[in-house]
Specification:
InterPro entries: GATase_2_dom, GFAT, GFAT_N, GlmS/AgaS_SIS, GlmS/FrlB_SIS, Ntn_hydrolases_N, SIS_dom, SIS_dom_sf. The chain has 610 residues and is of the alpha/beta class. The chain is built from 18 helices and 25 strands. The chain is globular, with a radius of gyration of 25 Å. The structure holds 2-deoxy-2-amino glucitol-6-phosphate (AGP). 2-deoxy-2-amino glucitol-6-phosphate binds next to helix 9. The site of 2-deoxy-2-amino glucitol-6-phosphate has 15 residues, from helix 9.
């Protein structure tokens, strides 16, 4: 959702800005723009509706060269996608600004600024920030002071970068509720909303904190906290791979990321287990003391991460640890009951999801024992604001449809459940060792499932002309069915609903006919016989079943039923394994339908606004 890149350098920065925007494309956007201060000291601005490619082509026609520049990809919130609404926005003849987030009091500010003589040329909330900075500067303030003063008047969320053609070797930036990271080069500095954008130019980053305002020149960075006091922020060396933003031999990021799962899980497990135990300290230096006290867990997440949370609830409760799971956007607006010794756990790929972050901030006031996040992005807001953070190490996930982030979340959650159960004396050493063995086998097991690629590609043809589909599972497979349905609707735009199979006869059975494919996730567990009865209910009504089943489940393909056999797996890791074929299914259906797999319509990778 919206992307920002900025640079102050001695070289021309337009190509760096465009490359940075391309690396943020996965976040979802509808227009792109950039501005540089050129040799004549003017602001050269280019904006295009649609893809960054269009901006790049425009740049060939109208080259913009200069060492200081800002760029943006916009995902429309206030005002339709259009060139006029695209960033950067300009105020007076000198201020240019890009912004991520939402300014909630923009109408009030717009009225005030109009009274001061400003004319608005866009429908965006962002334009008020540009005029506010300009207005403050007119009162005799420096660019930095003007931004500091302006942000005090803003309500809502912002990550913003401003430049001034009268002060051409400086950028000023501010963050509150929308991330910004400064890239440290040699004699040059950069800024972006995600470190991924800057990997071609640096691997050294300063993560700004909430309320920070900073001034960036070629010589260095000065950072001030929300009270305006100078602060030092650590420079962090990133181990993210430069190639993280490339598809390699794969047609789409999503397919690449599906196939990266064995390595992503192996890396999530690395250094965190002995031969027979989970290393408690992997959850943070205070984890031993905290996990021993846990009597209940409240998990908050959105979308795919919420499905991971739902699986974890089954796991926690198997070992006698009370667990509640809730969608962040619901939790944050109600008064929740806080049990004693309750760990507040957030799950997020990006670490920047606005609702999840707001829920964490609220939970801090509510008396939870401690907070932990399971997250994939180091230095993200959730990581910084939680008491403990466990990184999933999936590597950059570019496809909007979450794949490897999900299975690494499940892996991390199974480790956490095991560690908590052991720390609280709910499982013995032998049980822990058994789970550790299963975890260790995961990469190998997933490689095996990935060999079903061709068979699933064949199967996908049965879905491509359908408008509706149903996904069924029981127990931990119910959230996996939900995840399968989310994947299908997200990238193929086929309506997909998931049900706990036992609910069929309470309503959804009425939908069944030969035009409604029904996907069933059927490992060989204690609920298999119940699930078989549910499948018969579908079959008896002419429904078409597509069953991912344990090869020993004695399910025979026949009229109205296709079976895709999987190797036998331990019940505890089955949710992780059975996710993979559902990801492949949705991918291949989307390929047949010709949709934009990596950037599905109307969606953004990182949902940083409410
Ligand atoms: C999943 O495919 C989605 N893109 C979406 O549901 C996502 O999981 C959700 O927006 C939560 O994001 P987070 O994990 O970054 O918090």
């Amino acid at each position: 959702m919206c992307g920002i890149v900025g640079a102050v350098a001695q070289r021309d920065v337009a190509q760096i800005l465009v490359e940075g925007l391309k690396r943020l494309e996965y976040r979802g956007y509808d227009s792109a723009g950039l501005a540089v201060i050129n040799a004549e000291g003017n602001i050269a601005r280019l904006r295009r509706l649609g893809k960054v490619r269009a901006l790049e082509e425009a740049l060939v026609q109208e080259p913009a060269s200069g060492g200081t520049g800002i760029a943006h990809t916009r995902w429309a919130t206030h005002g339709a996608p259009s060139e006029a609404n695209a960033h950067p926005h300009i105020s007076g003849d000198n201020i240019a600004l890009v912004h991520n987030g939402i300014i909630e009091n923009h109408e009030l500010l717009r009225n005030y600024l109009q009274e001061q003589g400003y004319t608005f040329v866009s429908e965006t909330d962002t334009e008020v920030i540009a005029h506010l900075v300009h207005h403050e500067q007119k009162q005799g303030l420096s660019l930095l002071e003007a931004l500091q003063k302006a942000v005090h008047r803003l309500e809502g969320a912002y990550g913003t970068v401003v430049m001034d053609r009268n002060d051409p070797e400086r950028l000023v930036v501010a963050r509150s509720g929308s991330p910004l990271v400064i890239g440290v080069g040699i004699g040059e500095y950069f800024v972006a909303s995600d470190q991924l954008a800057l990997l071609p130019v640096t691997h050294r980053f300063i993560f700004l904190e909430e309320g920070d305002v900073a001034e960036i020149t070629r010589e260095g960075v000065s950072i001030f906290d929300s009270a305006g006091l100078p602060v030092e922020r650590e420079v962090v060396d990133s181990d993210l791979d430069h190639e993280a933003g490339d598809k390699g031999p794969y047609r789409h990021f999503m397919l690449k990321e599906i196939f990266e799962q064995p390595d992503a899980i192996a890396s999530t497990l690395e250094d965190r287990m002995t031969a027979e135990t989970i290393v408690l300290e992997s959850f943070g230096h205070r984890a031993v003391e905290i996990l021993r006290r846990v009597r209940a867990v409240q998990i908050i997440a959105c979308g795919t991460s919420y499905h991971a949370a739902m699986v974890a609830r089954y796991w926690f409760e198997t070992y006698g640890i009370a667990c509640r799971v809730e969608i962040a956007s619901e939790f944050r607006y109600r008064k929740a009951f806080v049990p004693d010794d309750c760990l507040f756990l957030t799950i997020s790929q990006s670490g920047e999801t606005a609702d999840t972050l707001a829920a964490l901030r609220m939970a801090k006031e509510q008396g939870f024992m401690s907070s932990m996040t399971i997250c994939n992005v180091p230095g993200s807001s959730l990581v910084r604001e939680s008491d403990m953070a466990f990184m999933t190490r999936a590597g950059a996930e570019i496809g909007v449809a979450s794949t490897k982030a999900f299975t690494t979340q499940l892996t991390a959650l199974l480790m956490l459940v095991t560690a908590t159960a052991r720390a609280t004396g709910r499982i013995d050493a032998e049980q822990e060792a058994e789970i550790v063995r299963e975890l260790r086998e995961l990469p190998h097991m997933i490689r095996n499932v990935l060999t079903l690629d061709d068979a699933i590609q064949q199967l996908s043809q049965a879905f491509a002309d359908k408008h509706h589909s149903l996904f069924l599972g029981r127990g931990t497979m119910y959230p996996i069915a939900m995840e399968g349905a989310l994947k299908l609707k997200e990238i193929s735009y086929i309506h997909a609903e998931a049900y706990a199979a036992g609910e069929l006869k309470h309503g959804p059975l009425a939908l069944i006919d030969s035009d409604m494919p029904v996907v069933v996730v059927a490992p060989n567990n204690e609920l298999l016989e119940k699930l078989k009865s549910n499948m018969e209910e579908v079959r008896a009504r002419g429904g078409q079943l597509y069953v991912f089943a344990d090869r020993h489940a004695r399910l025979v393909a026949g009229d109205g039923i296709q079976v895709i056999p999987l190797e036998k797996v331990h019940d505890i890791v089955a949710p992780i394994i059975y996710t993979i074929p559902l990801q492949l299914l949705s991918y291949y259906v989307a390929i047949i339908k010709g949709t934009d797999v990596d950037q599905p319509r109307n969606l953004a990778k990182s949902v940083t606004v409410e």
